[in-house]
Specification:
Aspartate Aminotransferase, domain 1; 4-stranded antiparallel beta sheet; Aspartate Aminotransferase, domain 2; alpha/beta; disordered C terminus; 2 domains; single chain
């Protein structure tokens, strides 16, 4: 492969699965997944644009948390910043006009990338997908008699919309998942679709791809739900980094995206793509700088700006937004289908190898949550490790040990409590018991509580492949997991830090 990272000497030991060397395993992998060869352009890209990975011996497996940026993206953005004088766009001065031109060009490119007709869709820039979701939640016309329906495996930023719905008197329902693959219970979902009163505002929200299991839910649900009287919110944050979204073929009312999850840079910019017919329904509960055509203090009145301007609060991140166009062009040059094919091959092989891992006594070392094939699933693999006696190894300890091996992945519940509850077999009573603790409840207390309730647990390990993942990344992770073979829970040891919530903040000293 002409000097790519796949051919470099394997510096951390060349035995992973049994007696098979890295080279032998790689050749076997290529024989089983020959389409991987068609993605070789990504190896050249990695060697040039992302060489810091291999120079530092880093294995990055957290693409669902955030993608990585290429050096050319940053350089092109720097060149743009150095090419002119760019000021706050809320003016017609030369500096302001120059900025406005580039912001609007990026807006058009976002719509073009997703094949969204600008006569049908508006692109509203936000801080991230969560900001886009909050815009929908606070502005959607929930009311008594209306409904908010969402799937169990939504991200917390979607779950949070239920608070707006309940506050306005709407009914809230969850569509469950079916174990072990944790796909949607389609029969139950269809029955919930029938509950919509067409004379009321009804919103159905689901992820195109679960950030917990990697399950890709059918995009056809958009059309099915709309035919039953629902507006549809499609969260594509975990889907679009490796899959094609064509809004000329599937037409949800609201689409939410974080660009850093697609191409790493810039952070702090996301978007709400909204059908103009749905935009007209939204009722903003407040106004801010830049969102009004008229406002009076003495008259205590205001007129909200039309279209996207009424929803882009304050001053946009106008120096970062042009980098979105650079990032989209970066992905277009690579090819989203190329990225998707590589991720599919690596995911399939990794799942197979994880399921094959056994302790000396024959017990499985790993449990995977969600599908164990690549059919209708992405490159996210969530799992837990077990010792030879079947005891769960603390996922916090796993991450702690991985740090010493320069492995980056994610642990916890990934802001997706519904999927986690289903995966771990937690009951409604378990969760209500925890909720009754009120402000005293945090992650540590919750884990302690679950131990008293049948030695249950919550949390897991999540790896995710993406833009420039390669076989060596998968191999290194398998070698790490294999190091726990025949290691008892006591031998692995206890975690040496505690976490109160989902933010791991440590003293810098």
């Amino acid at each position: 492969m002409n000097g790519t990272s796949e051919q470099q000497p394997f510096r951390q030991g060349d035995r992973g699965r049994g007696d098979m060397s890295f080279d032998d395993a790689y050749q076997e992998f290529l024989e089983r997944y020959p389409s991987y060869r068609r993605t070789e352009s990504l190896d050249a890209l990695r060697a040039h644009e992302y060489r810091r990975l291999d120079e530092e011996g880093q294995v990055y497996l957290d693409y669902t948390g955030g993608s990585l940026y290429g050096v050319s993206q940053v350089e092109r953005h720097r060149q743009w910043l150095d090419s002119g004088v760019f000021g706050n766009p809320h003016s017609v001065s030369p500096a302001s006009s120059a900025t406005t031109e580039h912001v609007e060009r990026a807006r058009r490119h976002v719509l073009d990338f997703f094949h969204a007709d600008p006569d049908e869709y508006a692109a509203i820039f936000t801080a991230n997908a969560s900001g886009a979701l909050k815009l929908v939640g606070e502005s959607y016309p929930f009311a008594p008699g209306g409904r908010f329906l969402l799937t169990f495996d939504n991200h917390n930023s979607v779950n949070g919309i239920r608070e707006f719905a309940k506050a306005k008197g709407a009914e809230v329902d969850y569509a469950p998942l079916v174990a072990p693959e944790l796909r949607l219970d389609r029969k139950r979902l269809d029955s919930l679709f029938e509950n919509a009163d067409a004379a009321r505002a009804n919103l159905f929200a689901y992820p195109a791809q679960s950030n917990f299991t990697g399950v890709k839910h059918p995009l056809e649900l958009v059309t099915r739900a709309k035919a039953k009287g629902w507006d549809v919110l499609l969260d594509v944050a975990a889907f679009v980094p490796t899959s094609r979204l064509d809004l000329s073929a599937v037409r949800p009312d609201f689409v939410t995206v974080s660009f850093y999850k697609m191409f790493g840079y810039p952070t702090g910019v996301g978007a709400l793509l909204v059908r103009r017919t749905a935009l007209a329904k939204l009722q903003r509960p407040w106004f801010a700088g830049g969102t009004v055509n008229f406002v009076s203090v003495q008259g205590q009145a205001h007129v909200l700006s039309k279209s996207e301007a009424g929803f882009e609060d304050g001053t946009l991140n106008y120096l970062a937004i042009p980098a979105v166009e650079i990032g989209l062009r970066h992905i277009e040059a690579i090819g989203i289908d190329t990225i998707g094919e590589r991720v599919k091959c690596l995911t399939a092989w990794t799942i197979e190898q994880l399921l094959a891992l056994r302790h000396g006594n024959g017990r499985a070392m790993v449990r995977i949550y969600g599908p164990i094939t690549t059919e209708c699933r992405g490159g996210t693999v969530t799992l837990n490790l077990y010792d030879p006696e079947g005891h769960l190894l603390d996922w916090r300890k796993i991450e702690e040990l991985a740090k010493g091996q320069k492995l980056s992945f994610r642990t916890g519940c990934f802001c997706n409590p519904g999927a986690g509850e289903m995966a771990e077999g937690l009951s409604e009573d378990d969760m209500q018991t925890a909720a009754r603790e009120g402000d005293a409840m945090n992650l540590g207390t919750f884990l302690g509580l679950l131990k008293t309730r049948g030695h249950k647990s919550a949390g897991s390990v999540r790896i995710s492949f993406g833009l420039v993942s390669n076989f060596r990344d998968a191999w290194r992770f398998l070698e790490f997991v294999g190091s726990f073979r025949d290691q008892s829970r006591l031998a692995v040891g206890e975690v040496t830090f505690d976490v109160d919530d989902c933010r791991m903040m440590r003293d810098a000293t």
